[in-house]
Amino acid sequence: MTDLTALGAREAIALLRRGEVTPLDLIDAAEARIRAVDGAVNALPTLCLDRARDHARRLMARAPDDRGPLAGLPLAIKDLDDVAGVRTTYGSPIYADHVPARSGLMVETLEARGGIVIAKSNTPEFGAGANTFNEVFGKTLNPWDRRLTCGGSSGGAAVALATGETWLATGSDLGGSLRTPASFCGVVGLRPSPGRVATGPDPLPFDTLAVAGPMGRDVVDVALMLDAMAGAHPADPRSLPPPARPFLAAVDAPEPPRRVAFSPDLGITPVDPEVAEICARAARRVFADMGAAVEDACPDFSDAPETFQTLRAARFAAGKAPLLETERARLKPEMAWNIEKGLALDGDAIGAAERARGALYHRVVAFFDDYDLLVCPAAIVPPFDVNQRYLAEAGGQKFDDYVAWIAITFVLTLTSCPVLCLPAGFTRTGLPVGIQIMGPPRGEARVLAAGALFEAAAGLAPLTPIEPRDRATPRHARR
Fold first, then answer.
1. Rounded to whole angstroms, how far apart are CA atoms 92 and 135?
2. Could you say which architecture CATH assigns to the domain 3-478?
3. Among 48, 50, 2, residue whose Cα is nearest residue 167
4. Which of 457, 460, 412 is nearest to 438 (CA)?
């Protein structure tokens, strides 16, 4: 890879602002890297380099200080989000030839703030599922071991970052779609509070389960991207104004936590013993070294898996039932199952789930009266065979459906609290393991600051970019 593609986003932006490189230079470097490695991983199936260069030339007509906070930095957009004039499939054969006339709000915001879209990143159909494959573009492979899944649904974004094809990427997260691939690929992803990033126009504009968020190779890059994404928009009724203090400032001058809760399993799911041990050792050592008290604790999540499954199914029915009527034969079976589950729900079930979510939220708010952070693994297993559609069993527990295995991420979704995923270590076979750091409601600054401190103390920043590998390299072989 070139020196430019190996740079972090913040370093690349500094070069742009000083005029030492141009946006066109970075586009050229990204294109060369994509041509060199993407055939091995299938992260960025749709490129829009001519459009990117046109945008770069418009930015270069302005003074460097007038190009926005991203200053002309190339980035990738998940293929769930519309980019004007660019093929946008949502990972579905139903939309295989779809070219939107207008970009979504998030893309418009990023482009207005100096981001240059160079590609669309691969995703499972409509973002449903935590393994990135679809009938339009095929499978995206984990660059640490190309036999394995990269996670999903923001798998293409995570792989593009891990292999140096882009400096920043957008992701989205309903049940863990930012966090699982970040964990499996050794990068960083933030699920922000609902409304922190304006999205849409959306047929379900009041939904608070699904959010968009930033992905990068380290916490600093994720913080600067969140600053570029954040802000209110009238077309998104959830959207929040930007904070008075930039998120990047919280990372540059981080305040250490005082009291941290750790749970290996949130009391709800089996976790691979090696994964649990890696996360526990890292959390206890790193946060204790900061002077924080680290205690085994978490809120009561016992009813959260059923609550989430109900509300998620209701959301699928609300958003996708018309497609089930007209395009059932072209929907993947997991999508059809999820929509039908939602359509079969009655008012009593949905009402009970809403009440349960409300009770969980109040438990979590009370929990953060005592603790600054909640920390737990980001995935219950290391990456598994990419040809396995989803994890069917772990620790002797069978999972009834294609999302049950990611309960360790999706129960945190219910809280609407921000959750950061970042690397915590490696398995003995050389596969990355991620950890989740959740903060109080709208506490992005707190989790980003803690993540920056954790990253520096753990010595794991940055792990990427890497060259795609046919198989993982065991830890002892890398020393």
1. 7
2. Alpha-Beta Complex (3.90)
3. 2
4. 412
Q: Which residues contact 404 (CB under 8 A, 6 or more apart)?
A: 305, 309
Note the pLDDT tens digit of each residue in 319-377.
Answer: 999 999 999 999 999 999 999 999 999 999 999 999 999 999 999 999 999 999 999 99
Residue from 78, 120, 320, 332 carrying the catalytic annotation: 78
Q: What is the pLDDT of the chain when averaged over all its residues?
A: 97
**Beta-carbon neighbour count of residue 112 at 10 Å?**
12
CA-nearest of 207, 174, 213, 193 to 441 is 193
Is the distance from CB of 11 to CB of 220 less than 8 angstroms? Answer: no
Two structure tokens written together for 271: 């976790």
User: Which residues are CB-neighbours of 202 under 8 A, at least 6 positions away?
Assistant: 236
Q: Find out whether 156 and 122 touch, Cβ atoms under 8 Å.
A: yes
Q: Which of 92, 154, 172, 177 is catalytic?
A: 177
Which residue from 274, 268, 336 is spatially nearest to 299, judged by alpha carbons? 268
Residues paired with 259 in a beta bridge = 293
- Non-local (6+) Cβ contacts of 137 within 8 A are 42, 45, 89, 91, 122
- Tokens read off for 85: 């004039």
Do residues 344 and 390 make contact, with C-beta atoms less than 8 angstroms apart? no
Separation CA 325–CA 322 (nearest Å): 5
What is the identity of the amino acid at 208?
T
Is 153 considered catalytic here?
yes
Contact 239, 198 (CB under 8 A): yes
Instruction: Spot the catalytic one: 153, 154, 193, 416.
Output: 153
How far apart (Å, rounded) are the C-alpha atoms in residues 331 and 92?
7
When computed from its CA atoms, the radius of gyration of the chain, rounded to whole angstroms, is: 21
> Quick check: is 183 catalytic?
no
pLDDT for 461: 77
Maximum Cα interatomic distance, the chain, rounded to a whole number of Å? 62
Per-residue b/e over 360-391, b at no fewer than 16 CB within 10 Å? bbeebeebbeebbbbbbbbbbbbbbebeebbb
Distance between CA atoms of residues 411 and 169, nearest Å: 24
